[in-house]
UniProtKB/TrEMBL annotation:
Name used for this protein in its record: HTH gntR-type domain-containing protein
Gene3D superfamilies listed in its UniProt record: Aspartate Aminotransferase, domain 1, Type I PLP-dependent aspartate aminotransferase-like (Major domain), Winged helix-like DNA-binding domain superfamily/Winged helix DNA-binding domain
UniProt keyword list: Aminotransferase, DNA-binding, Pyridoxal phosphate, Transcription, Transcription regulation, Transferase
Residue ranges annotated for the HTH gntR-type domain, each copy included: 1-69
Subunit structure: Homodimer.
UniProt xrefs under InterPro entries: Aminotransferase_I/II_large, HTH_trans_reg/aminotransferase, PyrdxlP-dep_Trfase, PyrdxlP-dep_Trfase_major, PyrdxlP-dep_Trfase_small, Tscrpt_reg_HTH_GntR, WH-like_DNA-bd_sf, WH_DNA-bd_sf
Names of required cofactors: pyridoxal 5'-phosphate
GO MF annotation: an example: pyridoxal phosphate binding
The keyword Transcription regulation is annotated on this UniProt entry: yes
Cross-referenced PROSITE patterns: HTH_GNTR (PS50949)
Family that this chain belongs to: Belongs to the class-I pyridoxal-phosphate-dependent aminotransferase family. In the C-terminal section; belongs to the class-I pyridoxal-phosphate-dependent aminotransferase family.
Species for this entry: Sulfobacillus benefaciens
Amino acid sequence: MRQYEYLVRSIGDQILKGDMAVGSKLPSERATAKKFVVSRSTVRRAWRELESLGYVTWSNQSTPVVIRPLEPMGRAERSPVGRLAEALSPTFLGDLMQAAVSSARYNFEIGMPDPELLPIQDFQQILRELFSYPSREVFGYSPTLGLERVRRAISEEFLTRRGIAMSPHNILVTAGSLQGLNLLTRLWVRPGDVILTESPTFAGALHIFRSHGAKILGIPIDESGINVDMLTSLTLGQNPRFLYIQPVGQNPTGVTLAPERRLKLLHWAQQSQIPIVEDDAYGFLSDEPTPPLASEDGKIPLVYLNTFSKILAPGIRVGFLAAPADLIRQLVALKQLSDLHTGTLSQLVAEGWLRQGRVDAHIQRARTIYKGRLKLATRVIRQAAQLTLFAEPTHGFYLFAKLPAGLTAQSLHAKASQRDVLFAPGQPFSPDGELFGDWIRLAVGAQPTAQIETGLRRLTRLLEDVADGSSGSSNRTIKLPRS
Ligand SMILES: Cc1ncc(COP(=O)(O)O)c(C=O)c1O
């Protein structure tokens, strides 16, 4: 992370937390430069960025003034959803998205595909062809459900490869799969309803569930996936709305459901008739023959989510939800209220990629590269011995690791970012918000091999320094790397 970015994050956090009141001046340029041990031009650059983000105004004053508008928040607090949204920790997902554009050299924070794997030439070809279409077909409005040709391509080229037979009528194209999960939760969940999840699980899903006032019941997982015996006993008498699960390359642990657990889970779903919401975001990254639960052809009540974000490009924001047609109809009505439809151009790009004939080669290449990166990261972590891995996944992006006793991920995060190393703290992945404070998630997918080795060694050296009390910065003076 560059010096000015660190300042932006640090000052922005204080403003968000209310530590700096609206109307108050930021500390002077000189004081800030001294505190963070940076040049005055770095301070001014951070101030400019804070101004463009809407945290401060800096027009006529020598020092910026905090303007974060509190009025709209005050209004939101009056609505039930607004109150819940306020109670979330909104900065975690925001930080993750900010990490996506961070220039930090060793960025293990954000779970995304390596941009180097983007099939640029295919994209150029696809876009060239799209520009030869009548512009209203590419840049005009389109149906909320998703373009018919795109849903057909998803059915024939995407779902078939996952072993799922699903008609285009059962597919709703969404702006990322997270939108699908949000719409479904809006439709199905009332405040106080119970939702079952793995523990730990994807923080974005937990944010959605919490924002709807759900009671989240986390079921422990191990290196073979969810503990189905505990699932059965813990859910007795609970009447949960659904189980949210990622059976392959789970975020944040990288774990995949073992075949015998998968069978047990199917049995549980058949017996209980509790719907499963299957998030298969990392399904394509595994070369193990683990078929999605959705390939079981209507034997269990199930909604299936997937996305182009992890196999192709998250920025195009195309995902989809597959479900029985009556449910799709209700979700369409909700999506209309949200964004009318997923971007027409983005949908057509995704379709173009599915139809251009090189999907299998792309998937194969991605699997091989990520597998190698996970293997290397696992070796470096094992050699260092300060981190304990939750599991040793062979596919996907993630490793989940426990810190040495007495250390919290949150305190390490600040120190690590000063050394240009980013990771995601573990606590936001906790269903009850209490666990995994001493765990970190390392996303290695988008990091080239050399960076993985050096970055992880930096991290383990920091852990050694922290252990022997020589990690550097005091609370009053923050030492930053030179950018
Ligand atoms: C399990 C899981 N589901 C969904 C998403 C979000 O996907 P999308 O970009 O399609 O909204 C993520 C992103 O990290 C994820 O890990």
